[in-house]
Predict the 3D structure of the following.
Amino acid sequence: MSFQSLHFLLFLGVVFALNRCFLQRPDARKNLLLVASYYFYMCWDWRYAGLLLLMSAVNFLAGRRIQESADARGRKRWLAFALAVSLGVLACFKYANFFVDGAVRLVASLGVQADLTVLQLLLPIGISFFTFQSLSYTLDIFRGRARATGSFRDFALFVAFFPTVLSGPITRARQLLPQLEQPLPDSRERLEEGLVLVLRGFVKKMAFADVLAAHLVNPAFAAPADYSPLFLLVAVYAFTFQLYMDLSGYTDIARGVAKLLGFDLPTNFDRPYHATSVSDFWQRWHTSMSGFFRDYLYFGIGGSKHGNVYVNLYVTFVAIGCWHGAGWNFVLYGLIHGSCVCLERWRRGRRAARGLPAEPQGALPRLAALPRLAALLLTFQIIALSRILFRAPDLGSAAAYVAAMLKPVAAGAAPFTAVGLATLLVAVLLHYLPPRLFEHAARGYLRAPAVVQGGAIAGLALALMAFSTGTASFIYFQF
Amino acid sequence: MKRAPGPGRRIGAVVLWAVLFLVAFETALQIRSQLRFGQSVFNLLSGATRYVNDERTGLKLLRPGRVFAGDDVEIRTNSLGLRSPELAPQRLPGSLRVAVVGASTVMGELTRTNDATFPALLGERLRVRYPQRAIEVVNAGISGARIADQLRMLEEIVLPLQPDLVIVYPGFNDFADYCRDVVSTPTPAALREGLPLVSLPNWLLGIEAVRRHTGFLRAAPGRQTLRDPAAVDRQPYRARLERLVATARDAGVTFVLATNARAYRPEQPLDEQMRLSAQARYFNPCFDLPGLNALYDRHNGEILDVGRHFGVPVLPLHERIPGGREYFVDASHFTPAGEHRAADTIFDYLVSRGLTGT
């Protein structure tokens, strides 16, 4: 059941109405949301509901045991158990095919044909997200930052909560579980805010991400050799904005739906292409995921306090790359970003040693903004170009794309469409316009009478029907 | 004291207004369809739909003996459920009975009157050419018919009419199968087994109206095909065609196959191709423009090859009718000029080959 489907709208309507009926009955409300969440997940694939349940059970049990254990060894044992099962399941489903393929190639290079297709596993949708979400609970209890919940139902709901189960935002237990205990916040502003978020998410996904994909990104990546370097470069920029519109659109819908049901989820994005360094970018991009790696991996292996900080950074960024998928392209993606962050850290340290500010300042007051602008543009180029690795199916395809970009400028076709270019231009403008303009527009919409609001939603529904490719699921569903 | 509406009630009012606007939009489209084509959901409600499922033949046929009148299209059906005049109960000596089997292009889905369809125009030309003979041309085209339906049409309706000549223009409906599994399955679970989902009823016009007219938003001229036309298994298509030809051959009837003509061609400007192929891309969303061109050419190749294999004459209609707006309303349906061009081309072919039995 995709967010963009009629089925989801009906499902949401029923859940929303029942949720409001249970305003004064928290137990019934939790039961409703748990059943709804499992139903939602089973609409994608009922076979993997057991996996969701297993992940919930293992981490619930481990969380309880860690909290109850008096000695450090016992706590570590239960943490190891939770990590082994959770990451083992994730590795089995997500990386088994990668290793099997590697093994088959290795054996084939020795002249032996091996048929290991029986091991090909289907990736359960959302596994990277719900695995990390459930693990964050266990890790927080281990570190004494959260207390174990006594209710398995509450924990199962936290793991399977339908707005987040497929693509996040990865929510910490300490953010969501307490909200289950609070009475449902009931205000018109809250519901309207939720509605606006949902609408904004649909617009981002269907009017921007899908159109950019159809007009620029998909053709370029399907056959890069056919196109001119300019078209390929614009397609890379288009993909940069497609990815942002896609995942932040999903996040907006998830947050909006959660808000309609009485929950607050983390924001996940803070205008990422305003970043003036790669380090800055990772504090603005998919923050629920990068925050997970920062808190549980980077700090866990020593951060900047223990061991070699650069090694720790590399390990963290390679892990981030691998989290996105099993492939050397993702490893290289992580290495490039890790290298940039290490370089920036080294440079900041060097400037600090010389008594200089962390970032260069403009020589003249009038030119004060120039270094910042240059840094923003440079960062954007790094992010955009490294995304070739992200979009290409494998390292070879990414290399072919780069090679096609380096051929003579006049070679190849450049089938730009007015729709594609206009969409990219509007996406760029929207990203760099001050957010207060959107807040102003949202306030104006919310002040309008119900008939105008309803008319706008109907118009938007028709427009989205026009834009929707019908074939495009959210990009992060594959992770 | 009057109570202020609760937060939930406010959202409910907004959603209700949105639904009302959408219902009003759909109602307007249904009324427009009724006025233009004489077909809408109102036919469904009154039990007077244009099409019926014939229990005897298992075919979808037009409702027999009716007139479906709209401002743009008027369809008169005979007692067989075809867009054709009534046939003489007894064949006269020296008469010529020709049947044209196919789908919406043969039926003339968008053609104003029965007399303006190319089978009817072919009949006119034959009557002028052979004034002494009683000429009957049966339009055995039904919208949406695939080759399997056309075979059944041949067996159950056309052959019992004892035609002298059968022309089959297969159309493109079989291609829809190629996109079914690609489009309906979201990534990444190619083999997912989810619970059943609710979908919109297929009589809704709003979605189709919006999507048909906005194809340019969703597709670009570049390569982005989800399915490689070279990897499409054409064997089932070929097997169905062979069964059709073999059935006609076994019945001893003179048989002509025609290749499928289409509006868009690779030699046209890209914008023109995109506009003309909008309908084809709508029905075959897993192929892009180059992919569709390749797919259609390969299938016409199969038609030519089957004809050669069985020694059946094949009229290369795709070569004889140029693409473009002059001859096509959309990707595959003819304009009035296209209907005339098709009738002329078929007529010339039949006469030059002596297939009219004189």
